[in-house]
Amino acid sequence: MRRLRTSPEAKTGTRARSGPGDGPGNPELPSPGNVVREFFLGFIKIHILHHAGEEPVYGLALIAELRRHGYELSPGTLYPVLHQLEKADYLRRLSRVVNGKVRKYYVLTRRGGQALGDARSKIAELVGEVLEPDVARKIKRGRSR
What we know:
- Helices cover 59% and strands 15% of the residues.
- It is α+β, with helices and mostly antiparallel strands.
């Protein structure tokens, strides 16, 4: 499972030691782990927009859904992302009373739908470029055996 953990290094994007691709002790360059974390956060944002476009979603249900896709998120990671997407006008928050408690649901806005559409186009292009040739090669290898 992919884990997204927030550490002091993740918050600042720096670390004390150098690693592959980093300059020697250069605190200006993000660590490779932080770069991968940012990739996964982008995937998670797209998942959130997708699900919020299907139906109103709330935090704990999103955590469970994302876990189903292999992402292990804490509320401390998810809720700031939801607030960021709401602030960017990609999501709108609705308050509903469920079992006597107020639950915050999120729905996709028009702007969020446009962003999701743009992301889908880029994902299709990326899959075509990155995965499709690899899949085609595997199929060819399987036929030649």
